Amino acid sequence: MKKKLFLTVALFVLCMSLVFAVSATLEQADSLYWLDRLEETKSLLQNTLETTVNPSDRAELLWRLSRATLAIGDERKEEGASDSELFAIYEEAEQYAMDALAYGDHPDALVYKASSIGRWGETKGPLNALSKAKPMRDDFTYLIDTLGVMDNSVSWYVLGQLYFQLPGWPLSFGDLDTAISYTRKAVETIPSHVLYPGHFKALAEMLWKRNNSASKRSSNLRSMERDWNRAAGKSVVDQHAYYEGAGGQNAVPFYSPVSLSKMSDRQEAVMLLQYALAKYDVWHFHSRADKRTRSEIEALLKDWGF
Predict the structure, then answer these.
(1) What is the structure's pLDDT at 73?
(2) Cα dist. 32→37, 44, 286 in Å?
(3) C-alpha gyration radius of the chain
(4) Long-range contacts for 15-24 (Cβ within 8 Å, ≥24 apart)?
(5) What pLDDT is stored for residue 126 in this prediction?
(6) Which of 44, 109, 111, 205 is the most exposed place for a label (fewest CB within 10 A)?
């Protein structure tokens, strides 16, 4: 009896130690990732995955492997990697996400599955990107409408990029107003511990392209507010196509001293970029991607005469 009790206690202690070991690894991997030490992140996760059997823990390791691999692909692209190398990296990132999803509906795995598919499509060219657009949108619709994940900034950002970069009807579902609404949601859901300057840059570029005057914005905001209210109770993704009008004409963005109806698209675009630079300057760490984005923001402001 005592021997059986001892074995039970020993097994419990062993299981708990494994749980804490994986938890510590996940914390370390996240820290390395946000410090832009991507290869170290990937190596740590791969080594831990080899000895991990718990399905939930494996899913946590796998979606992080997808995220790290995707980021490595982006850096290799900047370094001039061949298309064949990039295809392999993005396919690897997608497979990690798919492996994570084999253990259940993990929100982050869905995000990085769709993001990896998007990168693959961008590398393959416009026709291939078009073929991947609907599956990506379906993944995000499932994430938001079915799983109820409303605050994942990356998902809204990628949705916004889909609608911004794709052609409109009849070729595809691209739409500038929808892209702006989704990207506003992305900017407003940026977690406090990350910088994401690309979100601000993306929204600024969309607004600069649309180029509505303050008076036209005011009129459009009234229309979008009605559409937003009419879409209540329907698909969350569909309703958020009108998110720009959710707060009405008097909505004041957190980066602005005035309401949406009191400024033009291009005035807001400049304000967004200036806010992104100010946030960058006080941030504690800058990744390679952050530094590139800062340079791109400065170039945009110069091109726009600021």
Answers:
(1) 97
(2) 5, 9, 13
(3) 22
(4) 18/52, 18/54, 19/54, 19/57, 21/48, 22/48, 22/52, 22/54, 22/57, 22/60, 22/61
(5) 61
(6) 205
Q: What is the pLDDT of residue 21?
A: 74
Distance of alpha carbon 109 from its chain centroid, rounded? 12
Q: Is residue 58 a contact partner of residue 89, using CB atoms and an 8 Å limit? A: no
User: How many CB atoms within 10 Å of residue 34?
Assistant: 14
- In the chain, the amino acid numbered 273 is L
- Residue 78, H or E segment: helix 55-78
Round to whole Å and give the CA distance between 169 and 40. Answer: 44
- Please give the average pLDDT of every successive group of 10 residues along the chain, which has 306 residues: 47 47 93 98 98 97 98 97 96 98 96 93 72 91 97 97 92 95 98 96 98 97 97 95 96 97 98 98 97 98 97
CATH 1.25.40.10, the chain: domain bounds: 40-149
Pick among 3.40.50.720, 1.25.40.10, 3.40.50.10750, 3.10.180.10: CATH of 40-149: 1.25.40.10
pLDDT score for 19? 53
What pLDDT is recorded for position 20?
A: 61
Do residues 165 and 158 touch, judged by C-beta distance below 8 A?
no
